[in-house]
Amino acid sequence: MNDSGTATSRVIGVRHHRREVCVTVAVWTAAMSVIGLLIWILTDIAVRGLAEIDFGFLISDMQNAGREGGIGPIILSTGLILLVCLVVSIPLSFGTAIALTERIGQETGFACNVRRSLDVLAGVPSIVFGLFGNAFFAITLGLGYSILSGGLTLACMVLPILIRTSEQALRAVPAEYQYAAAALGMKRTTILFRVVLPVAMPALAAGVVLSIGRALAETAALLFTSGYVARSPESLLDSGRSLSVHIYDLAMNVPGGGARAYATACVLVALLLMINLATAFLLRMTGVRHRSTTGGTC
Amino acid sequence: MLIATENLSVSYNGRTVLRDATIEAKPGEILALVGPSGCGKSSFLAAINRLTEIIPGASVRGRIRFDGRELETVFPSSVDLRRHVGMIFQQPNPFAMSIRRNLELPLREHGIRDSGELRRIAESALRDVGLWDEVSDRLEQSALELSGGQQQRLCIARALALKPQVLLMDEPCSSLDPLSAERVEQLIDSMRGQYTVLIVTHNLAQARRLSDQVAVFWTQDGVGRIVEQGETEAVFNAPSNPIVASYLSGRKG
């Protein structure tokens, strides 16, 4: 009786142990393959692209449909498109997020409807945003194929993600801070600007960086809005080609453009990494701890 | 009477947590609110400085008088009210900024801009809570680097800097280590006569040591009520309510 009991529990113990090992191995394999994939992609791009990059490539004009010359005007256009996108989307997103999180009347039907629309908007494919941007900004508003049209279209596209991350950033601020500030007789606007926003800043910045990533990577929404003229833009109403559109064009439409496509991809990835690092650095300089959107600290 | 409530009830989303609380506190007196958790003591405090306004779903009925007049008439604006009725929370909650900014931000909000005056008020508030000697050489450091007890005393200094008449304290010692708790208790004791203090505490010995008056809260039929109140010594020595008697003697609650 006693022996068989011990034997049974030993069998169960071994079974449990085996399951533990299986799960551990599975979880680690998954994590390792994700990291491995990322490293593979980055090395592939670096190996094929880095050789093509020199200072001249970064500043000179494009020649021979991109097979020769550089990407100076394209970097400029990308920067301008991104600038338009952020100037429009950041105030709109932060404003909406604040409206959604203000503690008074937070669960109104209005807030629910805004959230539902955002979820729908977040699921819309970017090519649809491109068509909308073409119809509305380029044609109806008469902005034509321009950096302005492209930037505004991208702004519409990143709104859902930027509002959601900003809302989460504001919600993560402990209510105790707001109670403490209110109990000291501080007005709602002071509480917002002096107490809540500074605490939420790292997470808000993380959301902006995420949106920049989306915007820089976007091709489909820009094809019909900012166009693909590779000349240096003279104003926001000129058409301008973004880095991602340039990569697309070189890879798909220009025979022999592969090497330059990889070089451009290198620049794009480096740009993203730089923005990421710069944000983390700035946040550290201002004395706030960088908190990633996934909840870890680094 | 400086603060008097009459049939004060608080409910959240229609569920009443405190019914018909009637209390009076004289100027300069320490009034302890005791009783088991969840019988509406904190809600009672929040109703007095209208913090219930920003707690989702909270609503308040009943009357509150300040110095004999309706609180609504004396302080129509909550911002004004909260300047005169300060509050200290269970968890120390300094803002994530320097010690000096913690003290100066509320003062600036209430219209004090002169930097000399700001410094003077900050220093005197820190001296009042016995924190000046500990922090005078690191006022620009983050308040979050202070120990829990120091943070709580900073929060009290921050409230005192506004020169309130009433201080509402919601278990101000319960998250502190025994030594820090003792310091904060001494500090509260030293406020007697200068401020009217309403303090929620679960520490009955502390309530007895500190308070002039005591009100015992109890849950009856799922709703918090005040079941006994009066002079502290009288209530502790000869409680008239049998539940209160067994609670105060440690047999219940």
Task: Describe the structure in brief.
Chain A has 298 residues and is mostly helical. Helix content of chain A is 73%, strand content 1%.
What features would you describe in this structure?
The complex is a heterodimer of chains A (298) and B (253). Chain A has a two-stranded antiparallel ribbon with strand order 1-2. Chain A has helices at residues 2-49, 55-59, 72-101, 109-122, 126-140, 147-171, 175-183, 188-217, 220-223, 243-253, 258-285; strands spanning 62-63, 68-69. Chain A has 2 domains: 2-52; 55-285, MetI-like fold (Orthogonal Bundle), CATH 1.10.3720. Mean pLDDT of chain A is 88; it is low at 289-298. In chain A, a hairpin with a 4-residue loop joins β1 and β2 (68-69). In chain A, 73% of the residues lie in helices and 1% in strands. Chain A has 298 residues and is mainly alpha-helical. Chain A contains 11 helices and 2 strands; from the N terminus they run ααββααααααααα. In chain A, α6 (147-171) packs across α8. By secondary structure, chain B is α/β, with parallel strands linked by helices. Chain B has a single domain (25-56, 75-248), classed as P-loop containing nucleotide triphosphate hydrolases (Rossmann fold). Helix content of chain B is 37%, strand content 27%. Chain B has a 6-stranded mixed beta sheet with strand order 6-7-8-3-9-10, sandwiched between helices. Chain B has a 4-stranded antiparallel beta sheet with strand order 2-1-4-5. In chain B, α8 (178-190) links the parallel β7 (166-170) and β8 (196-200). In chain B, α4 (99-109) runs parallel beside α7. Chain B is globular and about 55 Å long. Chain B starts with a strand and ends in a 5-residue tail after the last helix. The mean pLDDT of chain B is 93. The A-B interface holds A 103-104, 106-107, 176-187, 190, 194-195, 198-199, 287-288 and B 49, 51, 53-56, 78-83, 86-87, 89, 91, 93, 95-97, 105-106, 109-110, 142, 155, 158-159, 162.
